[in-house]
Amino acid sequence: MAQTPEGKVKLMGAKIIKEYDPYYFCPVTGGFGSSGQFDVVVLYKGWFIGVEYKSTCQKAPTLLQSKNATKAISSRAIVMLLHKDNVEELRYLLEDIRNERKITPRGRSIWPFDSVV
After folding, report:
1. 34: which DSSP letter?
2. Which of 9, 35, 67, 93 has the fewest CB atoms nearer than 10 Å to its CB?
3. Which pTM value belongs to this model?
4. What is the dihedral of CA 4, 65, 79, 82, to 10 degrees?
5. Of the candidates 80, 55, 85, which has an alpha carbon nearest to the alpha carbon of residue 69?
């Protein structure tokens, strides 16, 4: 079965997440949940991390995804918009959390803040 470019990035992210063994889930919103949710939600050592995957850095989040990212950030979550060229940032974040390095949500969030409403 052929895999989409975004699907390849999701697999790379899933591999990284599984290395750290956090609690995580992929919200399924198909008609029953609210739209614009993160592709994966990771809860690791007290941190809420919302991850949205795109195939490349040219793919922008939707307006609804940006609104939800803003709400998450205002609740002290870390949000990440990851693509094939920056997916390793997820590993760096999880490693910092594992090693109890100082983390600030806005400072570790990777999201095009000019698109956040």
Report:
1. -
2. 35
3. 0.89
4. 20
5. 80
